[in-house]
Amino acid sequence: MKRNLSRCRRLIVVLLGVTVMVGSAGNTGPDIRVFPEKERMEMLKAYWTRMSKEQPIQTASLKDWGNRQAFLRKQAMAGFGLDPLLPRVPLNLTYGPSIERDDCTISWVYFQTFPGIYATGFLYMPKKAEFPAPAVFHSHGHWASGAANDALVESRCIGLAHRGYVSLVVQPVARLYCRMK
Fold first, then answer.
1. pLDDT tens, 59-109?
2. pTM of the predicted model over 0.90
3. In CATH terms, is domain 94-180 a member of 3.40.50.1820?
4. Are 140 and 147 in contact, with CB atoms under 8 Å apart?
């Protein structure tokens, strides 16, 4: 079975390669571009100039600003896939082991994001801060080692704790740092 699958894959790759070579060898058809190169470049430059120009928000009153705010919020929520909002679940925040430093406490935490799905992360709490304190959520992306092992993320969070900020670094679910119940 495994050998047949391997042969099938090789055959597909060879056929795709032949198709690409045959298709590109006779590509001497008519030029279907609508605009000449120079005109296309000028249009592109004009577009980028227009898009990068500062465009101040035109609001005449507080009511206009409220309408604009509602419109922007609806657009952003739709863009994030949060329109309509998902039902809220209890956070069920749980603290794990902590590391005490002179300036902050670093705690391993996990909390419920969806019913039965828990995300894990590290919470950096400053020791000298006025609470409620400003907070930063760190979404570090898809690094191979995750944020827990990265000195850059850790130093950034400790630096923010020096300045009185609370920082939460969440581990990606795809790296199997979540807990299912």
1. 788 898 899 899 999 999 999 888 888 888 999 999 999 999 998 999 999
2. no
3. yes
4. yes
